[in-house]
C-alpha cells in the first residue's frame, strides 16, 4: 500500500536511531516498563517519531499497567491503520502509522478497561514523540 511518506530503507536507517528503526521499520517491541511515555501524565499530542503525523492525544491515554503507553482511541480515525498480525503464533491487530506505515504497536479489544471504546492501543514509547500542551 502506498503511503504519503515513503523513503528508501537506507534513509530510514540514517534518520532513526537503531532502537527507533527496529521498532518503527522492523516491528520490534521495546521492553515493557522501559519507555519514556509509559507513565507520563503530560498533556499534549503524541506524533509518529518517523514522520511526525499526529496519532494520539493525552486525553485518550490511560493506565493499563501493561508496560507500554495505552490509548483508547487515535486522534483521528484515519491516523492509524490496523492490520492482522499472525506473527509469534498468535493473532493480533498491528497498529501502523497511516502516513508512513511505521509499526507503532498493537490494538486489543474487549479487555474490560473502563474506557469509552473498550479498546487498548498498546503503543511503543520509542515510536512516539510527545509535543506538550502549552500552558
UniProtKB/TrEMBL annotation:
Q: Name one GO cellular component term.
A: cytoplasm
In short, the EC number is: 1.8.4.12
Q: Does the keyword Metal-binding apply?
A: yes
Question: A single GO BP annotation from the record?
Answer: protein repair
The membrane-spanning stretches of this chain are none
What are the entry keywords?
Metal-binding, Oxidoreductase, Zinc
Domain MsrB: start-end pairs: 9-133
Q: What class of enzyme is it?
A: oxidoreductase
Keyword Amino-acid biosynthesis in the entry? The reply is no
Kindly name one Pfam family recorded for this protein.
Answer: SelR
Q: Which InterPro entries match?
A: Met_Sox_Rdtase_MsrB (IPR028427), Met_Sox_Rdtase_MsrB_dom (IPR002579), Mss4-like_sf (IPR011057)
GO MF terms here are: metal ion binding; peptide-methionine (R)-S-oxide reductase activity
Catalyzed reactions per annotation? L-methionyl-[protein] + [thioredoxin]-disulfide + H2O = L-methionyl-(R)-S-oxide-[protein] + [thioredoxin]-dithiol
Q: Which cofactor does it need?
A: Zn(2+)
What is the protein named? peptide-methionine (R)-S-oxide reductase
Per the UniProt record, the source organism is: Streptomyces swartbergensis
Lineage of the species this protein comes from: Bacteria, Bacillati, Actinomycetota, Actinomycetes, Kitasatosporales
Amino acid at each position: 500500500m502506498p503511503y504519503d511518506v515513503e523513503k528508501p530503507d537506507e534513509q530510514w536507517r540514517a534518520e532513526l536511531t537503531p532502537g527507533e528503526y527496529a521498532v518503527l521499520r522492523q516491528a520490534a517491541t521495546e521492553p515493557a516498563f522501559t519507555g519514556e511515555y509509559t507513565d507520563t501524565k503530560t498533556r499534549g499530542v503524541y506524533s509518529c517519531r518517523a514522520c511526525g503525523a499526529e496519532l494520539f492525544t493525552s486525553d485518550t491515554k490511560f493506565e493499563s499497567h501493561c508496560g507500554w503507553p495505552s490509548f483508547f482511541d487515535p486522534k483521528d480515525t484515519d491516523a492509524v491503520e490496523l492490520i492482522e498480525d499472525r506473527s509469534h503464533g498468535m493473532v493480533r491487530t498491528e497498529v501502523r502509522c497511516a502516513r508512513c506505515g511505521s509499526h507503532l504497536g498493537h490494538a486489543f479489544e474487549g479487555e474490560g478497561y473502563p474506557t469509552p471504546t473498550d479498546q487498548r492501543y498498546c503503543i511503543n514509547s520509542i515510536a512516539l514523540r510527545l509535543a506538550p500542551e502549552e500552558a
